Amino acid sequence: MSKIQLLDKTTIEQIAAGEVVERPFNVVKELVENSIDAGAKNITVEIKDGGLKMIRVTDDGEGIPADDIPRAFLPHATSKIVDINDLLSIRSLGFRGEALSSISAVSEIELITKTKEDLLGSRYIREGDNEESIEKIGAPDGTTMIVKDLFYNVPARKKFLKSLSAEGTMVADLIDHIALSHPEIGFRLISNQKPLLQTSGNGVLKEVIYRIYGKETADNLIDLDFDDEILKGHGYIGNPSLTRSSRNFENFFMNGRFVHCDIFTRAVEEGYREFLMQHKFPFCVINFECDPAMIDVNVHPSKMEIRLHKREESYDLIREAVHDCMSNRDLIRTVPFDDKDTEVIAAQKPPVPEKKSPEPFESNRILQFKHVDVDAEESNIIKAKEVAVVRDLSQMNLFEDRFLSEKAQIKHRVIGQVFKTYWLFEYEDKLFMMDQHAAHEKVKYERLMKQYRNKNVTSQSLNPPIIVDLSSKEMSVINEYMDSFAKLGIEIEDFGTGSVALRSMPQDLYGTDELTFFREIVDDLMSDPLKGDPEVILSKIASMSCKAAVKGNTFMNEEQVGALISELMTLDNPYNCPHGRPTIISMTKNELDKKFSRIVT
């Protein structure tokens, strides 16, 4: 058996570096977070070859006192905390004290820094664990960190890196997220001498969203703002038109830090559930704030994963806030003839200004850069000298004469039914198209939920009852939510070991495939215990109203359609079925004129 022996200093440092510095992305993250904690108002990040050849981070923060420079590169040296009690109230982004020590262990590093109090700055060079030189030089206030030849002394680690372009993309994605979490800081990213991102740092979050995701995204945002003693949240959620095929566009921040948290993800998606199609995900940028003592940020070395102490309460707050924002809004989608046009527009990011933007130390030019002049024309883009800012359009959502209103219904001109599925209406300068199945499904869903809340659900007996064999886990879930089933008119009776009998169903759902319907509900309940809130369970059950709704390829007369429109008008959200599909879409007269070349664009 091998003897236990102490590792040498170099090996210890490289093992520690491996925990903190896996790739260039980690280096940039640690250095930028240090700049933010130092009070920087402007930060420039430059990388070459994905960050492997060179990473330079320049800021206008408070700088490092000359006497502290060598100490800053020692393991577990930090100015962020003093003892373990500080971890309970941590508000800085970095606190482990491992960053500079770990980075210098696997690279050549150069530091140039100056505090406002010092007349001269300091230049410090270090290679691996060897301190090469330190000297006084002229320098602006702030700090510049230059990291060269990352992993030069551990070539084996390079084998696990992705391509240079992929590593560069990870850095760009990181800076995007940091810029979103700190709109009050101006960020500039340069990769291989090409500018990729630039924000003004004027504190307007929507300007940062515009810079990163483009005009189409910035034009389709909804304000989100809630304030509770447990959790505060502010930011934007996207209209259903910004639906995505992955969760990559769900951006969550906690106390200024980009984080991953299953509670945030599940709560937002549940709040959106009836507004988005299945297997689609929302766009959002939400900054959360809470007492640092209520979260654990020390879960993972990257500090991107957190744990909340009040999980269920936070989940309910976020879900309700998102759902309330989406309700009572005119969400009829205007559809162009060619969907490809929409995709191209959405994919276009605004160009980074060609004029040379200010470096962090250029105070006068920074002030000019952040100065914004509002364009005299009615527009949602504010023109600035070197940046475009998206104006907050909280007053643009006024729909007094919207299509689904009693006043508008009088002016509807019914054109007819197409393919026995879609109904066409002319109203003002738009053509509206209604999916009869989606609309009827939403009406039945809301009707069932209203009956439940008024405690007058009508049941229909199943004769004979349906016997269902269940696993022990399924039986446990049913027993837990038996009251919720009963309140919706679903009578379940124990039928012996591992079996239950379904004896009644809500009248509105009678005649569906009851067995399949029941099993789908049970599967949903087992998949996510956090969604065990009674209201959410009831919504899941009621969403199955699609089983009983009038189908496509079914004839309806104008009187029936008129009644359907009238009932849609009474709903809080008549624009999406319970599964998120649109009930109504529209096309403008202008689109038709362009298609027939009546107007030329």
Care to describe what's here?
The protein is 32% helix and 23% strand. The strands form 6 sheets. Strands 5-4-3-6-2-1-7-8 form an 8-stranded mixed sheet, with helices on one face. A 5-stranded mixed sheet has the order 9-10-13-11-12, sandwiched between helices. It has a 5-stranded mixed sheet with strand order 16-25-21-20-19. A hairpin with a 2-residue loop joins strand 20 (422-427) and strand 21 (430-435). It starts with 8 loop residues before the first helix and ends in a 6-residue tail after the last helix. The model is unreliable at 79-84, 86-90, 339-347, 372-377 and 379-400 (pLDDT under 50).
Write the layout of secondary structure elements.
Elements: H1 9-20, H2 24-37, E1 42-48, E2 54-59, H3 69-72, H4 99-105, E3 108-114, E4 121-127, E5 130-137, E6 142-148, H5 155-158, H6 164-181, E7 186-191, E8 194-198, H7 205-213, H8 215-218, E9 221-227, E10 232-238, E11 250-254, E12 257-258, H9 262-272, E13 284-289, E14 295-296, E15 307-308, H10 311-326, E16 333-334, H11 339-347, H12 363-370, E17 381-383, E18 388-390, H13 406-409, E19 413-418, E20 422-427, E21 430-435, H14 436-453, E22 459-469, H15 472-480, H16 482-487, E23 491-494, E24 499-506, H17 514-527, H18 534-542, H19 558-568, E25 584-588, H20 589-595
Parallel strand pairs: 1-7, 11-13, 16-25
Antiparallel strand pairs: 1-2, 2-6, 3-4, 3-6, 4-5, 7-8, 9-10, 10-13, 11-12, 14-15, 17-18, 19-20, 20-21, 21-25, 22-24, 23-24
